[in-house]
Amino acid sequence: MREIDKAMIAEMVDGKLPWPELKDLMSGFKDNDRFDKYVEVLQERVPWDDRIILPLGPRLYIVRKRDGSLVTKSHSGYEFGDYRENWKLQARIFVRDTDEKYQEIYPREMHADPDWMELREYYDPIDGSLLDVEAVPSGYPVMHNFLPDLETFYNDWLGRPIPETG
Fold first, then answer.
1. Are 54 and 153 in contact (CB under 8 A)?
2. Which of 18, 113, 126, 161 is a plausible cystine mate for 76, CB 3.0–4.6 Å?
């Protein structure tokens, strides 16, 4: 297997890493700086300067702003607010809750019963990119998928404090 460098991580992020290499990358020994390489690749691709602290998805991040606050931010630059709050409540939401709306993405009679389940799509308010999808019973509250313990992740797992600005 070749050296795991930023170029290889970039290929992985782009979905261009050949399967044998991706499998080795996933199942092999995790080098100590892999997370840092991953964040560097992502940081180079965003159009803003705030520091990525933790990626939440392909186009969603927890970032450290210049004022020191930690917020959830999309690739386009939309700030959803404090990372501990449910960012989905600030997103554009499209709900598939009828046969017609389901059939835009599923073949006829191959989707959930809209009386039992709805599909919620969460979009970036600036560029319209899809950030998340949840399938829930009709009327179910908006889910808060993930509330990371940043202090534990950085201090105990990475062995260093949460990065400051810069």
1. yes
2. 126
Edge to edge, the sheet with strand 117-123 lists 92-96, 117-123, 130-137
Largest alpha-carbon pair distance within the chain?
A: 52
Q: The tokens 């990371």 sit on which residue?
A: 148
Whole-number pLDDT of residue 150 = 97
Domain residue limits, the chain: 1-45, 46-158
End-to-end CA distance of the chain: 34
Q: Specify whether the CB–CB gap between 4 and 27 falls below 8 A.
A: no
- Per-residue pLDDT, 166: 63
Residue 19 CB contacts under 8 Å (≥ 6 apart), including other chains: none
Produce one character per residue of 137-161: b if its CB has 16 or more CB atoms within 10 Å, e if not. eeeeeeeeeeeeebeeebeeeeeee
pLDDT, mean of each 10-residue run, the chain (166 residues):
85 94 88 92 97 97 97 98 97 96 92 94 98 95 95 96 85
